[in-house]
Design goal:
Blueprint (H helix, E strand, L loop, with lengths): L5 E5 L7 E8 L6 H11 L3 E8 L1 H9 L6 E3 L4 H8 L8 E6 L1 E4 L21 E4 L5 H12 L3 H4 L3 E4 L2 H10 L3 E5 L17 E3 L8 E7 L7 H10 L2 H9 L6
Parallel strand pairs: 2-3, 2-4, 7-8, 7-9
Antiparallel strand pairs: 1-3, 4-11, 5-11, 6-9, 6-10
Length: 248
């Protein structure tokens, strides 16, 4: 798990009209295949290259000149900063609103809600790095608002992104705070609501409004503009909804 950014290349045709480079928050990784498939129904000759990572790290890469065309952040903070610094050419828009969940591969008493973290049998808890990953920030906020952080801070194991928090949850820790969207992955269907996972009370954390911008590098790219418009379309909203997000 030393490589925190995962590069995925999706190409369904041999003739390529253009290439789009999209920097995407890790929580979107579970739905990205469907977005690419649906987009290719309209633009079959366009190659879409996706880089997944924490929003903070992707933002740092963009600020350092990474040639991304589109940035899909896990919150509005990072695209707002890019827009203010003239690195984005469109005003940040909310493409989806995410939710936080708790996951355990072993049966747990989720009737306790977030206070389950104090259970003596839960010794290690995975969360994404709150400094760079908005879902980690939301998890930390929820623990603090529930007056539980000081009781469990010694249990926290920090992952680099939302997707790595899921990996830790199923391999290395007793419980994990994850993006709800991860629960809709085919690999997660073995787990049962109320037994292996539960949503975190949304009143405990600031709503996770996820933002998209078209970046300076895409100024002359019709392909990038087409993908940007697709992510804000009704078809894309239907996919987001299917993965547990709310859409504007």
């Amino acid at each position: 798990m030393k490589n925190y950014l995962i590069l995925l290349l999706f190409s369904f045709t041999t003739v390529v009209a253009g290439t789009i480079n999209v920097a995407t928050a890790a929580n979107v990784s579970y739905a990205i295949h469907e977005f690419i498939t649906e987009f290719h129904k309209q633009y079959p000759d366009t190659k879409v290259q996706i880089t997944l990572g924490s929003s903070g790290k992707l933002t740092a890469q963009i600020q350092n000149g990474a040639p991304y065309d589109i940035f899909m952040s896990a919150n509005m903070k990072y695209p707002d900063a890019l827009y203010k610094n003239a690195l984005a050419i469109t005003k940040p828009l909310v493409y989806a609103k995410g939710a936080l969940a708790m996951l355990s591969i072993r049966p747990r008493d989720f009737d306790k809600g977030i206070s389950i973290v104090t259970d003596k049998n839960i010794r290690r808890i995975a969360i994404a790095n709150p400094k760079t990953a908005p879902y980690g920030k939301a998890a930390l906020e929820a623990l603090k608002n529930a007056k539980l952080y000081t009781k469990v801070k010694h249990k926290l194991i920090y992952a680099e992104s939302a997707s790595q928090a899921v990996a830790y949850s199923v391999t290395a820790t007793d419980l994990g705070f994850i993006a709800k969207s991860a629960l809709f992955s085919p690999k997660m269907q073995r787990y049962t609501k109320g037994v292996n996972f539960a949503e975190v009370n949304p009143e405990l954390y600031t709503p996770i409004s996820q933002g998209i911008v078209l970046l300076k590098h895409a100024k002359k790219s019709a392909d990038a503009k087409a993908f940007y418009n697709f992510i804000l379309s009704k078809k894309a909203k239907a996919i987001f909804t299917a993965y547990g997000y709310k859409t504007p």
